[in-house]
Amino acid sequence: MLPPGGRISGTRLARLLGEWRRSGARQGSTDLAAALKLLVADGRLPVGTRLPSERELTDALPVSRTTITSALDQLRTEGVVESRRGAGSWINGPVGAGGGITGGDDTLIDLTRCAPPAHPGLRQAMVAAMDQMPEHLGSHGYHERGLPALRQVIADRYTARGLPTSADQIVVTSGAQHAWALTLRLFAGPGDRVLVEQPTYPNALEAVRAASAIPVPVPMTDDGWDVDAYEAALRQVGPRLAYLIPDFQNPTGLLLPSAGREKLVAVLRKAHTPLVVDETLVELSLTDEPMPLPMAAFGGDLVVTLGSASKSHWGGLRVGWIRASAEIVHRLTSTRAAIDLGTPVFEQLVLTDLLRDPEPVLRQRRLEFAAQRDVAVQALAEHCPQWNFKVPAGGLGLWCTLDAPVSTRIAVMAQNHGLRIVPGPRWAVHGGCEQMLRVPYTQSPEVLREAIGRLGVIAASVAGTGFPADAELSTPVA
Ligand SMILES: Cc1ncc(COP(=O)(O)O)c(C=O)c1O
């Protein structure tokens, strides 16, 4: 049977691969095969994708045709790639349990997700929700905007944060990612430009691309958001929309202070560009400093806010929301029917229960994450002393600057050490970030110590095998 998927060009594959090669390494084919497996394991080369011809790959990649043939042979032997005369080669995957990754001690640690397990209070909220289910079982159960009680407690939370909000400004969604996809459908069409931070959350970029819109990166500085750069980008590209993560930004962990919020909203307002603010991490402040007001407090109806229960409670609930003007809420709910017809009632009841009195759980969560962050900081200082990072005041990850542009190499090598981690270029629109690596601290102290210990071993084995740091500096960032 012929593969069902689309075809990837040699140039795109080369871009996805990043700096996979150890300079001067003799085992180029093994490295290439490992880098391709990483792409299959993390879903960027879906099963069924047709690969470019060997000739096209030879033009696109900085290695000989023999190396490419040998890498594909290895992948065919492992069942990752299949080829047929006349039909070419395609990804046959899957790469096997754990993404084909082997650990020395068979324990796979997944650092690709910055998502904590559920807190103990969730079970109790589930029991309470189960008791309420009979009230709902007699109705059709479709709530395009969400259960009224949940919309009310979400609105109350905004009001408590200093942003008066009513329930008719809230639409409950199946997570913040779904909320972003729904919002994109309303605001952006094929070819529209969407301003995004660089670096930014890879799935947010994927959603922009899936809407056939074009993500336009605005580079973050070491301190955060450069308002002048936004002003210039707004003037130069005339975007339809801007997307921002101002609260413990994923991946940098940075927080945009009030003054910056005010200035940024002012330049967006001047350009009549709506702003989508992703507040997925907003509840995870790890200090006693008061949080700045939500962006929407500065931007009014210009701002659409996305929220989520995934980080503060549990990703498995798949509940998020959109806060917007009542008019946008109305338009969002009318277009939603093409995608889905609402979020499951049970999970909404669970979250309603949790949000009625959110502080005790959040306080406990923050203590736990702060302790895990400190374990990660200490383990990195011990095992990867050559890496630099700022200790974030909130959020769930450390954005590390490596001593050389070897992020993809580390992610590729990690597969042989029972570790999965996202290579830096995935956080960038057109590649780059090859000297950056995000280390989430969402797992237990024991697992974190083990994972960072493995990273230290990998970093040492990769040391001196990367490209000179200048190569990263000259990477164009559009
Ligand atoms: C910035 C950001 N937005 C959205 C999401 C996805 O959230 P959800 O699980 O609510 O879809 C994440 C998850 O990591 C995230 O970091």
UniProtKB/TrEMBL annotation:
SUPFAM superfamilies per UniProt: PLP-dependent transferases, Winged helix' DNA-binding domain
PROSITE patterns according to UniProt: HTH_GNTR (PS50949)
The protein's name: DNA-binding transcriptional regulator, MocR family, contains an aminotransferase domain
Organism: Lentzea flaviverrucosa
UniProt KW keywords: Aminotransferase, DNA-binding, Pyridoxal phosphate, Transcription, Transcription regulation, Transferase
Pfam assignment, any one: GntR
Protein family per UniProt: In the C-terminal section; belongs to the class-I pyridoxal-phosphate-dependent aminotransferase family.
Sequence ranges assigned to domain HTH gntR-type in this UniProt record: 26-94
A single MF term (Gene Ontology): pyridoxal phosphate binding
Origin superkingdom: Bacteria
CDD domains per record: AAT_like, WHTH_GntR
